[in-house]
Amino acid sequence: MRLKTLILLSLTLFIAGCGQLNVWGWYVIDPRTPAGWINIKFLLGGFGSTILLSLIAVSLSMVLGLIVALPGMSSRRWLRIPSRVYIELVRAVPLLPMLFWVFYGLPVVLKSMGINISIDPFWGAIIALAVSDSAFTAEIYRAGIQSIPKGQVEAGQTIGLTYAQNMRYVILPQAIRRILPPLANQFIYIVKMSAFASVIGMQELTRRANELVVTEYRPLEIYTLLIVEYLLLVLIISAFVRWLERRMGADERG
Amino acid sequence: MQGSANAIEISCVGKWFGDYQALKDITLTVPFGERLVICGPSGSGKSTLVRCIDRLEAHDTGRIVVDGIELTNDAASIAQVRSEIGMVFQQFNLFPHLTVLENLTLGPIKARGLSRPEAEARAMHYLERVHIPEQADKKPGQLSGGQQQRVAIARCLCLEPKLMLFDEPTSALDPEMIAEVLDVILDLAVEGMTMVVVTHEMGFARKAADRMVFMDKGEILESAPPEEFFTAPKTARCRKFLNQILQH
Fold first, then answer.
1. What pLDDT, on the 0 to 100 scale, is given for residue A253?
2. Is residue B223 part of a domain?
């Protein structure tokens, strides 16, 4: 219901703008004219990259986050400390500098180590987003796993399960219902932050909007459409998150 | 190393939680076949002692040897000791996301390498032993406390332990469910299972125990057969404790 209301609201804004105020020049993205249609296709063409970029980044971040989170809960200090340091450091670095460092800095470091690969904007953005987000997913895993009573771990130990088996069959299946909803929220965060990939030349939604603004000089209309594009994407994901939370809640009672 | 005459040999064991000494110089031997009941006021260290035997807590000083295997930080020896011990917790600690049957088969399949049909047959056998085979497909949350604790006992039995530890198995139960759990434990005792039971159920202790141990403030104050223990406690502290709990 809320989704429909918001879409209706934005459409109304568009139409009102078209008719009454002469500051709006919707012709630039008017699908009825050939030029406007070409522009719209160009802008919407960024969806694919934004979605793919976000999906890969969030998947990597989920794996990386678990790898960071597990030693962070160890009883051994030498395992706990690197995890803690990673989380504190990564959390403190803003995404934009991180992106610049990965894209411009990392290839230089790799080259000095004899590894000769160039990082394209797509993978540069994925690495920066995934690393930056992994600190948060690690904390989400930690909170979820630590919310499981200690007696569950002990019961697993006493029936002879190894650490990995205990995690796989006892702890994670119980923690997952507390972990999934906040993880899905991180996905929304990644979708929004993926806009930064435009500055290293990634052809996603924001980059395309910027390029069209330069040639058409109609920032108001183009950026309005850009915001609506992100809004749509995020609303769809949050509808999915709510569905997920309801399903998880239903499971718990069953 | 196998085939020791004693199930548990504890000598001069000490355990600290920070500055607090939970166990002081504990020495205790449990031969195979013995049913030992440990009682004492809360905070006396009885749970800690039982948890040390299964290495859920690590002792700081002294030695604990279970069936000839000394407990150290060595993961292999801990795993071997745990494979001989069945541990029953006060809070049952069943896995809430698995069915009763899956709770019982997880250990045999994953830790012992049994096939699923073998493990399920064994699980049903022990569910019958604790009188609830009809609950096999339910989740623990759908069972009463007494039924949950009986499932927890069956979960231990599925691993065919040489000895069992019970850490206040009836303390979290409603009064009307205590008997059904104690009956199951009593059955095991009669069949000759070696067991260490931490409990305040003195009626059960009289029936089941070969020997009573009284602990207070991290020390063993008395160790005697039940008749002697209940009729002629040697220390004033134990006499006071027995008076308090036998009044009701």
1. 45
2. yes
The CA-atom distances, in angstroms, between B129 and each of A50, B123, B184 are 59, 10, 8
Phi, psi of B32 (to 5 degrees): -60, 140
- Residues of B with CB below 8 A from A155's CB? 89, 93-95
- Residue A129, judged by CB atoms within 10 A of its CB (0-12, 13-18, 19+), counts as buried
Residues found in chain B: 248
Answer whether B86 sits within 8 Å of A158, measured CB to CB. yes
Could you tell me if residue B1 is inside a domain?
A: no
Q: Residue B28: name the closest of B5, B12, B51, B39 by CA.
A: B12
| Whether residue A245 has pLDDT greater than 90 | no
Span A123-132, average pLDDT:
95
State whether CATH 1.10.10.10 applies to domain A2-253.
no
What residues of A are in the B interface, CB distance below 8 Å? 149, 151-152, 154-162, 165, 169-170, 173-174, 254
Write the CATH number for B192: 3.40.50.300
Whether B45 has a pLDDT exceeding 70, the answer reads yes
Do A206 and A46 contact (CB within 8 A), yes or no? Answer: yes
B111 DSSP assignment? I
Torsion of CA B243, B244, B247, B248, to 10 degrees: -150
Q: For position A133, what pLDDT does the model report?
A: 96
The mean pLDDT value for B182-200 works out to 94
